[in-house]
TrEMBL record:
Family annotation (Gene3D superfamilies): MFS general substrate transporter like domains
Protein name according to UniProt: Major facilitator superfamily (MFS) profile domain-containing protein
GO molecular function: sucrose:proton symporter activity
Main location: membrane
TM stretches of this protein: 50-80, 100-124, 136-155, 175-193, 214-235, 279-300, 334-354, 374-396, 403-423, 443-463, 472-491
Domain of life of the native organism: Eukaryota
Keyword Transferase attributed: no
Keyword Membrane assigned: yes
Signal sequence extent: none
Organism of provenance: Scytalidium lignicola (Hyphomycete)
Keywords tagged on the record: Membrane, Transmembrane, Transmembrane helix, Transport
Length: 498
């Protein structure tokens, strides 16, 4: 079985134009370092895998670290969402920003700690008589990766909730279209940021760092700067005066027991989940099957493309394996870049369709927010396109064909990052449980990725037992079947809305 290299990873115009612009700036870098949205950044995840391998983390252990993102998205973010909904600050009126700031600081600390594992191990080794460096590296890698993914949850959830809360229902499609552009820009900028040699920029401090350390420092500085601007200028709906009273059983303040607050947050999530409107519950089901299909593409796309190049290369492999693998990774990286550009172009086109200019076209009613069936129909098309692309993998034999295939599903990727957020946003905009709704939506995205990881691992074991070399294609076909299920649920959603 070939080595799995992961690739990587979501206004009242007068009131919110500034808020939206600033928040977009924050998210453009947030999506470059987060899972999502897992929550999905191909280039970053590949660099992280390479870094973990370079410090001696065994390759079979890395999947346990990859699963940290979906696991934290499923279990941790709903708790932070409920806590932020019921949070009553002693000073000020902001419920989301304290969580965003705390998440940012924790994310930066975790990321820098991850980049300095070798230095930390060296210090501990100086005060120890035994050679425990490898054990320490493994422990610190687990702690840092899981701390990073936990830290991202209040940051990611808080920013998304602020986006939804900053605009009325009728503008949620517009916000979602802008969010899809941010995701696409994050993919492209993340690719370039990971490709350039930061040490050669002439900055004295960075020039003495490794590439991964320089990347972590750069992203940390950008994250701190954009989060500060967001919290200073982004507007947040204050809670009413009656909500500012002393915290009751369902309210969280710093004076309450953290244990009781977390228990209450879990209970509130169950209550919220049971009281969801039918259409929101259907969106969650669509997301479950959709992300069950996206997981193999996100984590095995680079390996799939690299295998295509190696198997179709017309050069002799004897004594050239290292060079061939390097060329294969370059070809695969170029394909993921095209994927990002197609996703960006699709996002820009959809943004035009939901803008005010598009309202004069009779067949486009997206901008008014009155006809969500148009968005749902586009989403249905995205699932079918993705499924067809996955089933086509069995016929793809060359890297050129694989590149076209991967670039094509960039259309589906943009629709996946636009439509559900536009639909859910309409409910979040008027809900007192906005944080929980946003976090439960994220859990619907994260939980199927854990299941997909297990299914993919089983498929790989079966393929290995049978002596098959097309194990990744098996996973792609599983993704196609999941996309068919997502399309079926999307069709049910369309019937419900009409």
């Amino acid at each position: 079985m070939s080595q799995r290299l992961s690739m990587s990873d979501e206004i009242d115009d007068e009131r919110s134009n500034l808020s939206l612009d600033v928040t977009e700036g924050k998210l453009s870098f947030d999506v470059s370092i987060e899972e999502t949205e897992l929550e999905r950044k191909f280039r970053r995840s590949r660099l992280l895998t390479a870094y973990l391998l370079s410090i001696g983390i065994p390759n079979p252990v890395t999947p346990i670290l990859w699963i940290a993102g979906p696991l934290c998205g499923m279990l941790v973010q709903p708790i932070f969402g409920a806590l932020s909904d019921s949070f009553r600050p002693r000073y000020g009126h902001s419920r989301r920003k304290p969580f965003v700031l705390a998440g940012t600081l924790a994310t930066v600390f975790s990321m820098l700690s991850l980049a300095c594992i070798d230095d930390t191990v060296y210090v501990f080794q100086l005060i120890s008589s035994n050679d425990i460096s490898q054990t320490l590296r493994l422990i610190f890698a687990f702690l840092c990766v899981y701390a990073l993914n936990i830290s991202l949850q209040p940051l990611q959830g808080g920013i998304r909730t602020m986006l939804f809360e900053s605009c009325p229902r009728e503008q949620q499609a517009k916000v979602a279209s802008q969010y899809s552009i941010i995701v696409a820009l994050g993919n492209v900028s993340g690719y370039f940021l990971g490709s350039i040699s930061l040490q050669e920029l002439g900055i004295p401090i960075i020039s003495r760092m490794t590439q991964f350390q320089a990347l972590c420092v750069t992203i940390s500085l950008l994250l701190l700067a954009t989060t500060t601007i967001t919290c200073l200028y982004a507007k947040e709906d204050p809670f009413t005066a009656s909500e500012h009273t002393s915290p009751g059983p369902g309210r969280f303040s710093l004076r309450r027991s953290y244990r009781s607050a977390i228990i209450n947050a879990v209970w509130e999530n169950f209550i919220c989940l049971r009281s969801l409107p039918d259409y929101v519950y259907l969106v969650f089901q669509v997301q479950f099957f959709s992300w069950l299909g996206w997981f193999p593409v996100i984590y095995y796309q680079t390996s799939y493309l690299a295998d295509l190049y190696i198997s179709s290369a017309s050069v002799e492999k004897n004594n050239m394996e290292e060079s061939l693998n390097a060329d294969a990774m370059k070809k695969a990286s170029f394909a993921t870049l095209l994927f990002s550009f197609v996703a960006l172009i699709t996002a820009l086109l959809l943004s035009f369709l939901v803008s005010r200019k598009a309202t004069r076209f009779r067949y486009v009613r997206i901008a008014t927010g009155e006809d969500s069936t148009v968005l749902v129909t586009l989403w249905l098309f995205g699932h079918l396109l993705f499924a067809a692309s996955m089933f086509t993998t069995i016929f793809v034999k060359t890297i050129s064909q694989g590149t076209i295939l991967v670039a094509t599903i960039g259309i589906s990727w943009t629709l996946t990052n636009l439509v559900p957020f536009a639909i859910i946003g309409k409910e979040v905009a008027q809900s007192p449980q906005a944080g929980m709704l946003t976090s439960l939506h994220n859990a619907a995205i994260s939980s199927p990725q854990i299941l997909a990881a297990v299914i993919s691992a089983l498929l790989f074991l079966v393929a290995k037992y049978m002596g098959r070399r097309d194990d990744i294609i098996w996973a792609m076909w599983m993704a196609g079947l999941a996309a068919i299920a997502a399309a079926w649920k999307t069709l049910q959603l369309r019937f419900l809305l009409t």
